[in-house]
Amino acid sequence: VEVRKRWPDLIEVSLRGHHAYARWGADRLLSDHGVLFTAEGLEQLQGLPWLEGPDAQVAGVVAFHNAALRAFSGTGLGVAGVRLSARGSWSVTLGNGARVGIAVAQQA
After folding, report:
1. pTM, whole model, 2 decimals?
2. Most buried among 37, 47, 89, 91, using CB within 10 Å?
């Protein structure tokens, strides 16, 4: 919410909402525009993928999640989330709770 006073006697109120795309870590959400935010009642949200990684790597984590969705499509195994560790290792959590470590080749 942003509130501004306009001369001489007008108040302007702007309200911007976020549409949640995924959960980010334990206590935040990621909007469909790539913005990290907090919201009350987070623990009650269901059906969102769970993503985690360094905040500066949001775009890369989302891209990896999309690649994982494509890679596992048609297998009957849903992708519940992905994680990029601080050391740079990736893991994918499947819909059945199994966690799979993924090796990603470094490009020169």
Report:
1. 0.77
2. 91
Q: CA-to-CA distance for 36 and 75, rounded, in angstroms?
A: 31
Torsional class of 93: left (φ above 0), alpha (ψ -120 to 50), beta (otherwise): beta
Q: Which helix H or strand E contains 22, and what residues bound it?
A: strand 20-24
Count Cβ atoms below 10 Å from residue 60 Cβ, excluding itself.
13
Contacts for 68 with CB less than 8 Å, ≥ 6 apart: 79, 82, 92, 102
H or E element that contains 50 = strand 50-52
Rounded distance, CA 108 to CA 106, Å? 7
Torsion of CA 17, 34, 51, 74, to 10 degrees: 100
Alpha helix (H) residue ranges in the chain: 58-72
pLDDT at position 106, please? 62
67 or 102, greater pLDDT: 67
